[in-house]
Amino acid sequence: MMIERIETGARMSRIVKHNGTIYLCGQVCADAEQGIKEQTQTMLDKVEALLEKAGSDKEHMLSATIYIKDMAYFKEMNEVWDAWVPDGHAPARACVEASMAREALLVEISVVAAEK
Q: What are the residues facing 30 on neighbouring strands?
């Protein structure tokens, strides 16, 4: 099977497609100076745009791994997540506390989805 890589750089591809499955690289917020709710929303907006570019959408997400800087943010992050995920289309999900690549980042997500 052919592997398609989209927006590929030296370190990673933003999207990799293989055999009807779409893998997104980790996504973070648009503005790390914002709070957890804003960071979560802009991160999910970026996921939605990448899924569209890859020929999918949030109703076709298979799994999501969320990395959160501090579990103290878990409830607020989930409020944004719950409003964003379409009813009846929640992916398999894991959420773990993790160190971030930059101090100001509070949350990051990695998503796997099926093509539409």
A: none
pTM (predicted TM-score): 0.95
Dihedral in degrees, nearest 10, Cα atoms 58, 64, 67, 71: 90
Length of the chain, please?
116
Within 10 Å of residue 16's Cβ, how many Cβ atoms? 18
Which of 67, 104, 109, 68 has its CA nearest to residue 85? 109
For each successive 10 residues of the chain (116 residues), what is the average pLDDT?
93 97 97 97 98 98 98 98 98 98 97 97
What is the residue type of 80? V
- 11, 16, 21, 34 from 4: Cα distances, Å: 16, 6, 10, 34
Structure tokens at 110: 């990695």
